[in-house]
Design brief:
By secondary structure, this protein is α/β, with parallel strands linked by helices. It folds into two domains: about 160 residues, Nucleotidyltransferase, domain 5 (2-Layer Sandwich), CATH 3.30.420.40; about 130 residues, Nucleotidyltransferase, domain 5 (2-Layer Sandwich). The chain is built from ten helices and 16 strands. Helix 5 packs antiparallel against helix 7.
């Protein structure tokens, strides 16, 4: 499987999400990047379900729309997978040489992965170990081959060449590392709220320690508003973002939003409690939130109070230059929280293996 942990910056990042396809291309290296392309096209409901592509034609059409509208010539891309077909698990193994580890990981994976080992692609990364330790921490990653095959097939049908297959959680972490100063002992929670799935990832010094998915995402807000006010999905989306539809204002939808805020905060709290129970030093210093829901009125302060944590909106573009003649600064500021996966993918490079 293509290595999931390197970073460089020479590919088009293609984030195939539940509600839209987003593409990001950067040029540069190190901490100096410039935005060269940005495209977004919506997807119909049920095109992507739990990370699986259910309507390949819709995804291909969205990709082609972006490439045509923005005259993108790049064809080498990085994509990310997510959902229940992706397993990310930190494990402990005896200290050993890299060659021995490569031979042992397969056996260890069979003990930890709930799928037949022949049905998955495996990757792993050695995490930091304390000096003098007799064990090392290894991050084990397994993705079902059929999910990867779906993404490769759709990309190929759209005329693209998939060079890197990543995982959403790693892409978000990549974007965070590029955009923020990472203290060696700082513990940060990254919350990425997608349309259908919310991912909580916890990093220490930029090293991923824990990740967990929740099935509560942005769509749950729409469903709650629809149920409470009897409006359509499209009207619920407008109300969710503070707009007005016939007969209702954004304020009318707030009770429905508050219900989901409480539900999501409770799920996030359970993830954090689980991390704290297993981690030697369970203090989390701050949380960064990405995804469209991050822009909901009251969401950030609500989470901060509910979780008793400093919470802020993530901006993966904060250190990336963008020509104001090509990219409207106000639009970029508004859309930035939705671009964490795309930016993280765009930071990958040809040659990552």
């Amino acid at each position: 499987m293509t290595n999931l942990f390197k970073r460089g910056g020479a590919l088009l990042g293609v984030d195939i999400g539940t509600s839209s396809v987003k593409t990001v291309q950067l040029k540069g290296s190190g901490r100096k990047y410039e935005l060269t392309h940005l495209g977004i096209a919506p997807l119909p409901p049920e095109a992507i379900v739990d990370g699986a592509i259910m309507d390949g034609g819709a995804v291909i059409a969205a990709l082609q729309q972006i490439f045509d509208e923005h005259k993108i010539t790049a064809r080498d891309v990085a994509v990310a997978v997510s959902g229940h077909s992706v397993i990310i698990k930190p494990i402990k193994m005896p200290l050993m040489k890299p060659q021995e580890l490569a031979e042992s990981v397969q056996w260890e994976a069979e003990q930890h992965i709930p799928f037949a080992i022949e049905d998955v692609n495996l990757d792993y990364e050695i995490l930091r170990s304390a000096p003098g330790a007799v064990e090392m921490d290894v991050l084990l990653v397994a993705v079902k081959k059929d999910i990867i095959s779906e993404y490769l097939t759709v990309a190929s049908s759209a005329g693209l060449n998939v060079v890197v297959v990543d995982v959403d959680a790693f892409a978000v972490a990549n974007a965070y590392e590029a955009a923020y100063d990472v203290g060696p002992d700082e513990v940060v929670a990254l919350l990425h709220v997608g349309a259908a799935v919310t991912t909580v990832s916890i990093l220490r010094g930029g090293i991923l320690l824990f990740t967990r998915d929740s099935v509560i995402g942005g769509n749950r807000y729409n469903e709650s508003i629809q149920k409470m006010l009897g409006v359509s999905h499209e009207q619920a989306e407008t109300l969710k973002l503070g707009g007005r539809v016939e007969g209702y204002s954004g304020a009318d939808s707030q009770p429905a939003i508050d219900l989901v805020n409480a539900e999501l905060a409770g799920d996030i709290r359970r993830s954090i409690d689980f991390f704290r129970s297993a981690a030697p030093a369970g203090t989390i210093h701050r949380m960064l939130v990405s995804g469209g829901v991050a822009r909901l009125p009251r969401f950030i302060p609500y989470l901060s109070e509910a979780l008793d944590l400093p919470v802020e909106m993530a901006n993966p573009l904060r250190r990336i230059k963008a020509d104001p003649k090509r990219f409207d600064p106000e639009y970029l500021e508004h859309i930035a929280p939705q671009l964490s996966v795309g930016v993280g993918l765009a930071l990958r490079e040809v040659g990552d293996k």
